[in-house]
Amino acid sequence: MPDGRLAVIVADVVGHGVAAALLVAKLSAEARFALYAEPQPATAVTRLNERLCAMQVQRFVTMVLLVIDPKTSKAQVVLAGHMPPIHRKPDGTISEPGDEVAGLPLGITDSLPYEQLEVKIEPGDVLALYTDGINEAADASGAMYSIERLRGHLRSPASDPTAIGQTIVDDVRRFLGKALQNDDMCLVCFGRAK
Questions:
Q1: Edge-to-edge strand order for the sheet containing 61-69?
Q2: What are the backbone angles phi and psi of residue 60, rounded to the nearest 5°?
Q3: Which structural domain, as residue segments, surrounds residue 149?
Q4: Percent of the chain scoring above 90 in pLDDT
Q5: CATH number assigned to the domain comprising residue 49
Q6: Exposed/middle/buried for 75, CB within 10 Å: 0-12, 13-18, 19+?
Q7: What is the CA radius of gyration of the chain?
Q8: Structurally, how many domains does the chain consist of?
């Protein structure tokens, strides 16, 4: 962002195919503009939602946004109908900040403002953002991967976000076995160096 902050967004458009892909491209451009125009993440997401509602695309989007300030090591979190980030401390304890400010998915109604909360990112912390294609991945018998299994990997003693992310991706692939992937999957893991 122009002031040196970093925005991390994970979003999931309802539906598949060309129309959903085009909406993702539009969402990316609109999110960049909203974050450039509005310094507060919640206000930027409120403006982004108003823009999507005005386009009347007949689809909605879930989204989690973190805006990280490297100077203060704080992240502002905004949820729009999406799962909260998983925040892991170096001792393996996890939290999922954001339920208290969770808003509706984007594109449903433009009459509600979004809220944000702040999270301190300490040395050794790891954060994971993901789409429901991860925790709802189903094997050949119909069993789901589960949020608990995802949390279990984040509780591991590993401290490297890249290694944790790769472990999760490899485990989801093993879990699926020969079953077809039935939804998009996105996983973003990052952290603060010690």
A1: 6-13, 61-69, 74-80, 117-120
A2: -120, 165
A3: 6-191
A4: 79
A5: 3.60.40.10
A6: buried
A7: 17
A8: 1
CA–CA dist 116, 55 (Å, integer): 25
Closest by alpha carbon to 168, among 57, 86, 109, 111?
Answer: 86
Amino acid at 70: P
Terminal C-alpha separation, the chain: 24
Q: Using CA atoms, how far apart are residues 117 and 42, in angstroms rounded to an integer?
A: 9
From CA 155, how far away is CA 169, in angstroms rounded? 15
* Within a domain: 1: no
92: tokens are 């393996």
Look up the pTM and report it: 0.92
64 domain residue, yes or no: yes
Whether 114 is covered by a domain: the verdict is yes
Alpha-carbon span 99 to 70, nearest angstrom: 24
Is-contact 120 187, C-beta < 8 A? Answer: no
In a domain, 10, yes or no: yes
8-40 per-position pLDDT tens digit: 999 998 877 787 788 888 899 999 999 999 999
User: Contact, 48 vs 36, CB < 8 A?
Assistant: no
CA 145/CA 127 separation, integer angstroms: 19
